## 1
Amino acid sequence: FGPEILMVSFNGRRYSYAPTGFTQVNEAMVRELLATARRLLAPGGGERLLDLYCGYGLFAHDLAADYAAVHGLDAAPEGIESARRNGHFLGTEVRASFRVCRIDGADVTRSLPKPDGRREVILADPPRQGIPPAALAALAERAPARVVQACCGTDEMPAQIRAWQQHGYRLQAVCPLDMFPGTAHLETFIRLEPAG
């Protein structure tokens, strides 16, 4: 019952998504969310952005102009379909590609382009439990120059940081955002870089 497609607009871009798909519920904070992600990622030109748990492509399309290529992965087929459709209408489809992928070690490795020496950065917005260990290990093996991960499960954040540290990354920044006003929950971005 109801519309088959929902619409939202952020930073002058209009996005469509399926009613069963994920979207940020606090729309008043999305501009700040996008600005914080951009600031922490610090696009350097010529890099490849890997957008994990990309949904309908909110981050990918907002950041596409800052990167040579963007590769989005999400387990929800309706999210990937929306991301592709949004890319067509936003004109970002030449830089951004999207694939359905269970975010686990083997599927991530198969679904992302093979490392080719180009600098990569990772943006991940996983569910509350964070990135599964096998997927995190596969991502760390790619030796990204920067990782920016959203943590909406504050209790899981220490374990995620420790997991990245075990794979040779050090914590550079922690940025909490009050995405869930009236609750004790925060959306927190962490930025990590290779310890070397």
## 2
Amino acid sequence: MAAALAVQPDLEAARLAAAAEGERGRAASALPAPELMAEAWQVPLERPVAFADAQMLSLGLRQAIPAPGSLGARADAAARRREGAAARGLAREAELRAEVLHALADVEEADRRRELHLTHRDVAERVFLTAQARMAAGGKLVDVAQAELARARIHADVTMDAARAAAARAHLNVWLGRAPAAPLGALRPRPSSTVAESDEGLLSRASAGPPVREAQAQEKASAAVAEASAAEARWPAFTVGLSYFAPTNLMPFHGYGATLGASLPWLWGPARAQRDADRYDAESNAATARGAKLRARAELVFALGRVRQAEARVVALGGAALAAARRAQAVALAAYEAGQGDLLGV
């Protein structure tokens, strides 16, 4: 698992996406860049570069100040999006772990199936040889034909098992970042296991899993954006400036000037429509978060039901049924080899 996760570019992409959201948070909390202004007023047209004859020469610095509360809200939105990106990375890691586990299970199943069919092949070979020997002593020709057919079918199963095992190993190799045909040693079979945690504990974990956390982070981010838009629609944004006036022939002294401007979002502009749009986004993402939690619980209940079914099947077949089948096989095979049973029993 560690080897597979170490070569997954999706996890690196998720980490970088979270880092990008962190930088966006820093950008959102910063004031806009200041503006440097240089102005020359009423320079004579007949002497376009005679700046000394201009009515005014000034050099100034201007700074825009967003509506109160908007910067903090947008920084909070970026922080929430970073949480969502981190949760998205965890969700992708969980998906990759599941993919690797499925690939590993496919290899184990293919190996186990091949082992069983090799055992079946040995039994089929014994039955075929026994049928031939019994026919020489007056046995039925149909037994030989049926035994030969059974042996051929088992050979076909073994061949298919080899192909299935190769395909499963190629799939696992791809997840490990290796060539599909790279050698992969025999895997040690793992014992059967089931879920030990209570259903309530599993439901609680599912309700707080990465997909739900991602949706909840998006919900909080959109709520913060709506708060910022509301502040921009409620309060004006300001602009402050300070200028230095150089002496000219018409104004032979040094001077300074100050400016203060404010937007008027109450008259017209996009602020109110943007506020309403962001509020609807926040409400939509809140519903999405509730839906993510519901889906996570539903998927957990469905998966847990399949686990319980598989557990019951393993317990039922692996206990008395398997022991009885092994005894019946041994008895039927021994009886047939002793000339007492028939091929149908085997």
